[in-house]
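User: I'm new to structure prediction. If I give you an amino acid sequence, what do you actually give back? Let's try with this one:
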Amino acid sequence: MERPDFDSIKDFAEFSRYYWYRDELIGICKAHGIKSPSGKIELYKVIEAYFSGEKILPEKKTGRSKKKAAVTELTLDTGLIACGFTFGNRFREFFSKQTGEEHFKFNVDMVATAKKVKESGDESFTLGDLLDIYYGKKTYAKYDKSALQWNRFVKDFCADEATKVFKDRLKAAAALWKTVRESDKKKEYSHELLEEYKDSLE
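Assistant: Good question. You get back a string of structure tokens that encode the predicted 3D arrangement of the chain. For your 202 residues, that looks like this:
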């Protein structure tokens, strides 16, 4: 089943059967005058609301210019927005001291959380809260794992011995992915899927 144009889709259930890239979702939102957040989960929520008759409009930008963070000393009570949080060395060193890990790495849920805090303008969220996210003590925003579907698909495709018959395996995987992406099939690789579409890939 080929993926139809967005405007010909009747409801969110039908829309959800197909795979959409983040850029496509943003384009749909902008074309229909609705809010276009950067994360796929948030984009899906806005589009779901659109199908139910609710238009979540883009936020109006105020004339106020953003003030640069004046916070010099970082503590667990420091607000994420107030200190101008980034994933740079200053904050890596801060969390390295807090956790005792010499080579500290931000995890994906910390990345998703910081992004959501900035987008929502949540000034109450602190570095201590972000540390709790690291330890899994609380949840604020989860990383959108659907973004990894293509990588998993290619990995599973290449792990199948039967795909060695293709000269350019990545090209064959991309062609098969395109077929799956534009259909209502599960966005996962399987040997059965290869057998079904093998002739069209050669």
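You can read the tokens as a compact description of the fold. Here is one thing that stands out. The two ends are 21 Å apart (CA to CA).
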